[in-house]
Design goal:
4 helices; 4 strands
Length: about 120
């Protein structure tokens, strides 16, 4: 019975492999190097005011794409965003404009915390 369960788990994990499974391993606080080794190079990078936005996209159905945005500041992940979008013409056409407002507020908070350290 035990070998059957192990094979079943391996089958489920291999069926779920891909960007979503990789992105699950990235969390706030992960290093930039960790993101690179887990997710690979971002096909849709962006940046603003010292913050990197590494964006990834993957088809998850006939007409849907899964998007992940990983925001990196001072070589650490500070925020992760995920959304889905219908896309007939490929995932690139479904990329949304980045809302930098909340990210830059977070950067201001991090800078303030850093300046308050003794």
């Amino acid at each position: 019975m035990k070998p059957f369960i192990i094979l079943l788990l391996l089958g489920v994990l291999s069926a779920c492999s891909g960007m979503g499974t990789k992105a699950f391993l990235v969390e706030v606080g992960s290093s930039k190097a960790d993101v690179l080794s887990i997710m690979g190079t971002s096909p849709y990078p962006d940046s603003k005011d010292g913050v990197l936005a590494w964006r990834y996209a993957s088809k998850v159905g006939l007409r849907y794409c899964d998007y992940r945005e990983i925001f990196i500041f001072r070589d650490k992940v500070i925020h992760i965003n995920q959304y889905y979008h219908a896309s007939i013409g490929g995932c690139f056409t479904g990329l949304q404009k980045i809302d930098w407002g909340p990210i830059l507020v977070k950067v201001d908070e991090l800078n303030r915390q850093e300046s308050e350290k003794p």
